[in-house]
Structures are given as structure tokens and as C-alpha cells.
Automatic annotation (TrEMBL):
<dbReference type="InterPro" id="IPR016161">
    <property type="entry name" value="Ald_DH/histidinol_DH"/>
</dbReference>
<dbReference type="Pfam" id="PF05893">
    <property type="entry name" value="LuxC"/>
</dbReference>
<dbReference type="InterPro" id="IPR008670">
    <property type="entry name" value="CoA_reduct_LuxC"/>
</dbReference>
<dbReference type="GO" id="GO:0008218">
    <property type="term" value="P:bioluminescence"/>
</dbReference>
<protein>
    <submittedName>
        <fullName>Acyl-CoA reductase</fullName>
    </submittedName>
</protein>
<dbReference type="GO" id="GO:0003995">
    <property type="term" value="F:acyl-CoA dehydrogenase activity"/>
</dbReference>
<keyword id="KW-0521">NADP</keyword>
Length: 353
């Protein structure tokens, strides 16, 4: 594979194809390449994905697809690629071990490998295995260069030159041992936090509700913990969260809420709750579903030091005028192509293997 412009064009065409699947509506458009072959089939794959994983609601699937359709534009892709000065000497085969916590969670790695000019060998999670192979087939139709360079496997990974693997902290230890002889990126568990000062507007906190509840809080970019000043008024926080009250109508979320609430009450933990979300004072970053942890801070400097020391556990910091590289309220689930997971430049890694 040698023409990067062809690869950029192919992914931009994929973005156009995905633009038919938005949260507002799913509607077939005219003049989209191979639409007669792929549109109805993709609708069917989305239905299967929903049936296979009850966290993959129609709303969450369409949110993911709409996000990628907005990201996969020619201008975005060119800005990303040419800022990295990509020069692949010898195409390699790169294995990707994908997580399955949210729809298309491994797509950025998949995109990075292919657009770099390498071949990809994908091992998917059982929780998210229906959408990507179909999109890969679409890519092969719009750009023949990809044919023979995209492989999916459910077997043991073999015959690859480098690996990108994502898992929890336990599987990461296994990955580090198993892939120790290959160039690798091993991703562990991370969570996102928000720093509140107490002067946030109602709109700020309603946007924060998106950061907390999108994908039911299952993503590494989902806010699972908030830092608040002493004497913070949690009524303001709960008022902001109220825009997402309908989430409790999802049976699986409701079951998790009831279970975790029962565990907390039996353990006699102090917690505040509003009927669909609990908040609990806790130093950990990873909170259970339907729960956000909170921790008080005395001064901003000490908090900045703590967040820096724990940077390997944190994906995003949501704040307003608090820290460098902070993410605006409501924007954690809208990363740019160059907002790399774990802060590791995937394209740079792929250009050096």
C-alpha cells in the first residue's frame, strides 16, 4: 500500500456513508458509493449489535456513528496525517486487540494502522464484533488497496510485527508479558475526572451530564469522578444531571443502579442519590455504573499535583480555566483524531516500527 491520498479519500468516503446514520434519523442518501450494496446490510448489523450487547442501545450506536462521520472528513484526515509527517519505510502487519466497552472503541487504532500504510490483524471483543467487519468491507469496495490488508481473527494472534492491545489492568499484565518481544502499545484502565469550582453555570453542569452518562459511563472518556471544593452544594450538581433522568428507563442500567445502591446501603456507606445516580465520597477513580465518586480539595495547586501524579490513571480532565489540556464540559466523547488515547501518538509509533 503506497498512496496515502487514496487511503485518506477512502476513509472520507466511509465518513460520508456513516453520515446516513445520525441520532436524529437514519435515512438513505443519494450519490453515496456502493449504497445499494451496503446501506440495508449495515442497518441489519446495527440491529444484531443491539441484540448481542444490551449496553449498545440504538442511541449509543448512532451517537458513535455520528461522531465518526463528523470526524472522518478529508480536511480532518489531512490535518492529522500531514502534521505527523508520516513516512512508512516498510509496511508491516500490526495486530490490534480491541476492547468492547463502547461501540467501535477500537476504530481509531484500526484507522491509524491502515492510513499509515500497514496491514491490520484485528482480534475483537465479543461485545463489539458486528460493526467493524462490515465497515472494513465497505473500505475494501471504495479502495481496492485495502483488499488483502484487513484480517479479522478469533484465533490466537500469529504472524504480526507489532501490536496495539487494550484491556483492563489485569489483562494488560498478560499483554505486557505475551507481547514483550514485539513493538507494542499496551493500554490499561483509565477514567476521566471533572474539577468543579462551585461557580459552574447550570448549562456547564448539564453538559457535564453528557460526560457522565454517554455510553452509560462505560468509556474511558466518561467522567467517573468529580473533585469539589469544601462546602460544595451538590444540589447544583444534581440539578445539572437531571437532564439525563430518563436513563433509568434502561433495564440493565436500572438493575445496576439498584444493585449498587443495595451494596452501598448494606455497607452503610454515606451516599447521595437522586433516583438514577448515586455519588459517594471515594479516593478511587473507577466508579461502578450509576455512581460517580467525589473527593474534596483544599486548594487548586495540591489538586494539580495529585492529578499529575495520577496521570497514568486519567484519560480526560474536564474543567474550566483550571489546567493545561483540559476538556470543555460536554466534550469528552467528541475527541479529535489527534486526541490520542493515553496520550500516546499512535501514528508516531506506527511510523517507527
Amino acid at each position: 500500500m503506497d498512496s496515502i491520498q487514496n487511503r485518506i479519500t477512502a476513509f472520507a468516503k466511509l465518513g460520508t456513508f456513516l453520515s446516513q446514520f445520525s441520532q436524529e434519523k437514519v435515512a438513505k442518501k443519494e450519490n453515496i458509493e456502493h449504497n445499494d450494496l451496503f446501506f440495508d446490510g449495515f442497518k441489519h448489523q446495527l440491529k444484531i449489535a443491539q441484540e448481542n450487547n444490551s449496553w449498545f442501545t440504538k442511541e449509543n450506536l448512532l451517537f458513535s456513528l455520528e461522531s465518526w462521520s463528523k470526524t472522518l472528513t478529508k480536511s480532518n484526515l489531512e490535518k492529522w496525517i500531514f502534521n505527523n509527517n508520516l513516512k512508512i519505510k516498510t509496511p508491516k502487519t500490526v495486530a490490534i486487540v480491541m476492547a468492547g466497552n463502547i461501540p467501535l472503541v477500537g476504530f481509531h487504532d484500526f484507522l491509524s494502522v491502515l492510513i499509515s500504510g500497514h496491514s491490520v490483524l484485528v482480534k475483537q471483543s465479543s461485545g463489539d464484533k458486528h460493526i467493524l467487519p462490515f465497515l472494513a468491507k465497505y473500505l475494501e469496495y471504495v479502495e481496492e488497496e485495502f483488499k488483502g490488508n484487513i484480517t479479522f481473527t478469533e484465533e490466537k494472534l500469529e504472524n504480526f510485527d507489532a501490536v496495539i492491545a487494550t484491556g483492563n489492568d489485569n489483562t494488560a499484565r498478560y499483554f505486557e508479558y505475551y507481547f514483550k518481544d514485539k513493538p507494542n502499545i499496551i493500554r490499561k484502565s483509565r477514567n476521566s475526572v471533572a474539577v468543579l469550582k462551585g461557580n459552574e453555570t447550570e448549562e456547564d453542569l448539564q453538559k457535564l451530564a453528557d460526560d457522565v452518562f454517554t455510553y452509560f459511563g462505560l468509556g474511558c472518556r466518561s467522567v467517573s469522578k468529580i473533585y469539589v471544593p469544601k462546602n460544595y452544594d451538590f444540589n447544583n450538581f444534581f440539578n445539572g444531571m437531571y437532564v439525563k433522568k430518563d436513563i433509568i428507563e434502561n433495564a440493565k442500567y436500572a438493575n445496576n443502579y439498584d444493585y449498587n445502591k443495595a451494596v452501598y446501603l448494606m455497607s452503610e456507606f454515606d451516599l447521595l442519590e437522586n433516583g438514577f445516580l448515586m455519588i459517594k465520597e471515594d479516593k478511587s477513580y473507577s466508579s461502578p455504573i450509576a455512581t460517580v465518586f467525589y473527593e474534596y480539595y483544599d486548594n487548586e495547586i495540591d489538586l494539580k499535583i495529585k492529578l499529575y501524579e495520577d496521570k497514568d490513571k486519567i484519560q480526560c480532565i474536564v474543567a474550566k480555566d483550571f489546567i493545561e489540556n483540559e476538556v470543555d464540559f460536554g466534550e469528552t466523547q467528541n475527541p479529535q483524531l489527534w486526541d490520542y488515547a493515553d496520550g500516546i501518538n499512535t501514528l508516531q509509533f506506527l511510523s517507527e516500527i
